[in-house]
Amino acid sequence: MTIRAIEHVGITVPDLEQATTFFTKAFGAETLYDMLDEPLAGPAVESGLGIPPGATIESIRMMRLGEGPNLELFVYSGTTQRDPVVPSDYGLQHFCIYVDDIDKAASQLEEAGGTLLSQPNDLPGGDAGAGNRYLYARTPWGSTIELVTYPSTQAYEAGTQLRRWRPRAAADHSQQEL
Prior knowledge:
2,3-Dihydroxybiphenyl 1,2-Dioxygenase, domain 1; Signal recognition particle alu RNA binding heterodimer, srp9/1; alpha+beta; 9 strands; 4 helices
């Protein structure tokens, strides 16, 4: 069996058009297609997806995001929503988007309606390197996103031959430094 990569990240959003606009304006995401002609509901959907009785999937949209995994946006009805997960909760707590220019990406995220939780910070520990930075932010509906850039060799690379995934442009740049 060959494992290739994460193919998509599913995100439940309160408003499909708002989320589409946010990901398009903030990160240049592109809509690939909408999956549903009509809502999905019923016992088979509930048990197959592990959703509560009465929950209905109103819409699903697949979006392309750079060279990384696709985004699959869901809108549900018929169920009470909890507060968005924060990083200290169990389960999937955030997703991270690699960017070349973190300052510009932070500005675009804010212009698209997101909220920065900090300004860009130097990456610590094994991620450290010249210009390697990150920040956390929230979407308009409260989900947590990390932005990261690591254009330089990372400190951990001195101790192992294993390497983190990097987008092609960043990987090419890092290889030129070696």
